[in-house]
Amino acid sequence: xxxxxQIVGALLARLRAALPQMxxxxxxxxxxxxxxxxxxxxxxxxxxxxxxxPLRDGYGQLRTLQLTATVLLSQSSAGVAxxxxxxxxRQSCLGFAPPDCQPAWLLSETFLGYRDGVxxxxxxxxxxxxxxxxxxPESSSRLTVVSLEEQA
Length: 152
Known about the structure:
Elements: H1 4-18, E1 23-26, E2 41-52, E3 60-74, H2 82-93, E4 105-115, E5 118-132
Parallel strand pairs: 1-2
Antiparallel strand pairs: 2-3, 3-5, 4-5
């Protein structure tokens, strides 16, 4: 089972490959607190939380990870248009399956505003994985019979 950091790391690598002209990193703070180091802008990925389904067979739950890619676009630099960057972020995330996850889907896109020469957008996305219990092997039941027929 992939850890949360492995899942986030895979998404960061995917975004970096699609947007080499921009800074791409994990940042959990407010976008106004981010010191924009790159002249064209940045994509800031942040884990916003998870929702969980019911416990299955006492060992695992469906986990829906919710993430936000905040896009900061410097309006002083010539080059990539806002729409092109947003398209690249959406294309990179939609359908991408991080390790041990289902393909990601988009939830929303919001214009956060324009301040200090920087346009700000937030793209929310989600992906499903399983959260598996750490069970003591001595206390768990063992497989004793294998059959090719499904039992109701």
